[in-house]
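Hi Q.,

Before the meeting this afternoon, I wanted you to have the adenosine-5'-triphosphate prediction in hand. No need to reply - just skim if you have a minute. The sequence and ligand are here:
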Amino acid sequence: MMLGRLFRRNRYPRARPLRWELTDELLRWSRDDIWTLRDAVEGTLILGATGSGKSSGSGRTIAVSMLDAGFGGLVLTAKPDERALWESYCRETGRLGDLIVVGADAERRFNFLGHELNRQGIGAGLTENIVNLFSNVMEIRERGASSGGGREDGTFWKQGALKCMRNAVDLVSLATGTVSVPDLVRVVLSAPLATAQIRDKDWQHGSFCFECLKVADKRDKSPRQQHDFGVVCDYYLLEWPNLAERTRSVIQATFMGWADMFNRGLLRELFCTDTTLTPEDVERGRIILVDLPVKEFGEVGQFAQVLWKYAFQRSIERRNVAASPRPVFLWADESQHFVTSYDMQFQTTCRAARVATVYLTQNVSNFYAALGGGDKARAEADSLFANLNSKVMHCNGDAVTNEWASRLIGRSRQFLASGNNSYDAEDQWTASLGLDWLGHAGHTSAGYSETFELEVQAREFTRLRTGGPANGWMVDGIVFQNGRVFEASGRTWLETAFRQVP
Ligand SMILES: Nc1ncnc2c1ncn2[C@@H]1O[C@H](COP(=O)(O)OP(=O)(O)OP(=O)(O)O)[C@@H](O)[C@H]1O
Ligand SMILES: [Mg+2]
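Predicted structure with the ligand bound:
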């Protein structure tokens, strides 16, 4: 049943290339089927049931090939054992010195607001970037909260809270020349609740919001800042105090729900103090592993990772590939925990930015559910799947996934026996798999009809080997790359095998 075996090019360690070409070979799916850097930066999706061999089969092979080629990267973790796994990959490829662990000790910190500010200074899209960053991370939280329905309603409050944040960021940056979460919170909590209050001296003395308005008013401002300040004044002096009490309090609560997370505990330490590590470090070959596995750290782990992911995506998209050509990977096992709608957009720029995304998950339904369910989620997930060009399917019992994979590989013109003719057992077996059939067609021209059949039936995915002693440590996978015909199979798909390394 096996067509190709995985052939790795060299043994480690070896000298790493200083330049990277898109034609560089990373690994081989079979003796004649090369997987190149170009293939890698077109994205990879690995699917398979729990224990099917995603991590120890294709995952390991791909990870090691990228480390071996000198990639930098970001690793998001769902399970506590992933750190040890990556340490072993790095040790094997001589990359241990490049591995940087972001962990609960908060030794590796990243002040995302400060980073954004230093990068571009006040103005020039700063506010929108910060608001987008929050909005992206919060998508995760809303997903959990919106499962009870009322999505429309949620969108309304979210828009209100984003507007609230936009104005707070503008006001704080105009007044203080910097932005911090505590200052954003202080502004929102001290904004006037009624028009009359604005003239009240006591309120003025105690309000950080008023203080900021006063200071920002006196400061020298560029024409753009002057315009932004006008918008901010309208918001705090007219719109906010005149909102209906209930509306205002829900918007404020929504905003506080977001800001509060970064204003306390581990997230504050990791993201709102100083900076000892930035996403740009991956361009220098660092492998940043966020060791706050979702299974252990829950929501906090998930937020931290999504924040790192988004910051990484934005930073790597901006890089000048001519000056900084090192390929990098974005790695996420159990990737349904980390997927956000920005991924679809990011994936379309990965190739130019030389980012090899590798997402592993058990089944496609995980993604549909993670993106909120319904038609929109399905469309988003399908768009992401389409942009992860290499797909490796391992053993799976999930009917939805198996049918999805079967449809993905598609139909081909096949010749079916009409009844009387027979051929030997060996041929029948390969024909049923859609393998190598055309080679036999010359011998059996009569008595066959032509139909369009699924190349790989859904049930085939339930029969792949899953490693372990019972399978001689072999893991099977079916590889599909859109637009590719594999040498070893002559087909658009290839069944290959991975040897587990104890
Ligand atoms: N290094 C190894 N050597 C031998 N067997 C292994 C090794 N790693 C895992 N196994 C076994 O091989 C099978 C596949 O494991 P693997 O962890 O790769 O699956 P997986 O698809 O990543 O599962 P999950 O979704 O739970 O992460 C399991 O039965 C596991 O116990
Ligand atoms: Mg795994």
